[in-house]
Amino acid sequence: MSIESLPDRSGPSDEHTARRGFMKGTVIVGAVAMTESALAAPSPREEPIPIIDCHIHLFDGSRPQGAPYVGPGGDSPTTALPADYRKLAVPLGITGAIKVEASPWVEDNLWALQVMQPDDMMLGLVGNLRPEKPDFGELLARHAKNPLFRGIRYGTLWGYDLTKVIEDDVFMKGMRLMVDLDLSLDVANPSVRLLEAVVKLNERLPDLRIIIDHLPRLDPTAANQVAYDNVLNDLHHRTNVFVKLSGLIHRVSGKIVKDLEEHRQGLDRLIEVFGDDRILFGSDWPNSDRAAPLDEVVGVAKDYFADKPRELQEKYFWKNSLAAYKWKPREDIGEGVVD
Length: 339
Prior knowledge:
This is Amidohydrolase 2. Belongs to the metallo-dependent hydrolases superfamily. The chain is α/β, with parallel strands linked by helices. The chain has one domain: TIM Barrel (Alpha-Beta Barrel). It is 39% helix and 14% strand. The protein has twelve helices and twelve strands. It has helices at 15-33, 82-89, 107-116, 136-144, 162-165, 169-180, 192-204, 225-235, 260-274, 294-305, 310-325, 330-333; strands at 51-56, 59-60, 79-80, 94-100, 122-127, 149-153, 184-187, 209-212, 241-244, 250-252, 255-257, 279-280. The strands form three sheets. Strands 1-4-5-6-7-8-9-12 form an eight-stranded parallel sheet. Strands 2-3 form a two-stranded antiparallel sheet. It has a two-stranded antiparallel sheet with strand order 10-11. Helix 7 (192-204) packs parallel to helix 8 (225-235). The longest helix is centred in the first third of the chain and has 19 residues, at 15-33. It is globular. 41% of the residues are buried. Mean pLDDT is 87; it is low at 1-41 and 333-339.
């Protein structure tokens, strides 16, 4: 099978064009199924704000070869496919999603594109390819022909270590190819060392869009508070570094904390650092099941932004995802992208 796509027919588009296609291609899907109980009641003059979930996982542990990641365990399913997500997400006002690959198997990038293609709720894939490998350039170019492929994820997981490879010439060559192809880099899991590596990478490649995953989960300790504050101050001025305010509900001192007030100060700080234009919503479904079901994850985000200006809510819940991932409305992608 080939991962090659149809040619990109959308061409350059401004926010008006993107929004028009977005409203036709994805918002309507969610709006039809929204229930009054699932959303804060809008004023008569305002439509509900659609949500683009910038961080979900898809996998199928029932495949003959299995899958290297099948969720957090417990009651969470070992199969997570677009139809499973859609059932939970649409009633909450979610109209589109970006899938972040949690498998280090190269072939699972193709598997993800194949299962995403039939569902127009799926807007993009953040894949898993290794820039330090000699075949990275060929693999990236092939995958990038599919408009659903929006970038890769690399950090301090799966045995990868961004803090070390940014000193590697081959890795940096791969990062420059990412810039040439207008793709983004997700990084996880957050630590002060990883944030410091993001600063170094941004210094060397300021045109590379970098997206920090799950930063609210990083609760500084007394030992690293100064280093944490310093790196946040540095990130404040780096306009091509985005942050997912995902992982809002997380463990604090060993306990799952769902009370928004316990997290509010940290969220206020991150918005102060990254500003209105570089914050994104992400649920981390179904990995988030270890902390809370999807409706609670969405609910706490809505509660936090409920008293914020509507313009900021729109930026966080969907508009900033366009700037970070440059996803295309599905009507612009066409059919038969994965042959």
